[in-house]
């Protein structure tokens, strides 16, 4: 019963769609071809953008700089002397050497 209903529906849909939409349409032409030329919108040589904002007017500002003479001399600072820490002794013929990556010498 179920197979017969499905086959009936598919047959009905097949018959419905094959009769419509796939047929040829006939076109009748009574006159010859007459070309029509229409005016085209030409581009300007110098195009302009139509903007809704108003242009800002340029202002000429001047800065009048004046020198103000100031007589200021900072106090001098005396040199610092270290009393508690002794200086390290200098060694004679001290050499620091070695090799780094790819035998790069460090002298």
Explain what this protein looks like in three dimensions.
17% of the residues lie in helices and 4% in strands. With 107 residues, it is mainly alpha-helical. It has a two-stranded antiparallel sheet. It starts with a helix and ends with a strand.
Order of helices and strands: HEE
Mean pLDDT: 78
Measured by DSSP, the beta-strand proportion falls in: under 5%
Gross geometry: elongated
List keywords for this structure.
1 helix, 2 strands, two-stranded antiparallel sheet, elongated, single chain, 107 residues, 4% strand, mainly alpha
Secondary-structure map:
Elements: H1 2-19, E1 98-99, E2 105-106
Antiparallel strand pairs: 1-2
TL;DR of this structure?
The chain is mainly alpha-helical.
């Amino acid at each position: 019963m179920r197979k017969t209903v499905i086959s009936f529906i598919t047959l009905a849909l097949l018959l419905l769609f094959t009769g419509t939409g796939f047929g040829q349409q006939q076109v009748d032409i009574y006159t010859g071809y007459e070309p029509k030329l229409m005016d085209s919108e030409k581009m300007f040589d110098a195009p302009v953008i139509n903007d809704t904002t108003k242009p800002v007017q340029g202002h000429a500002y001047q800065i009048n700089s004046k020198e103000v003479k100031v007589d200021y001399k900072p106090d001098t600072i005396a040199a610092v002397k270290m009393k508690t820490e002794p200086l390290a002794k200098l060694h004679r013929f001290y050499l620091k050497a070695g090799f780094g990556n790819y035998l790069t010498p460090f002298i």
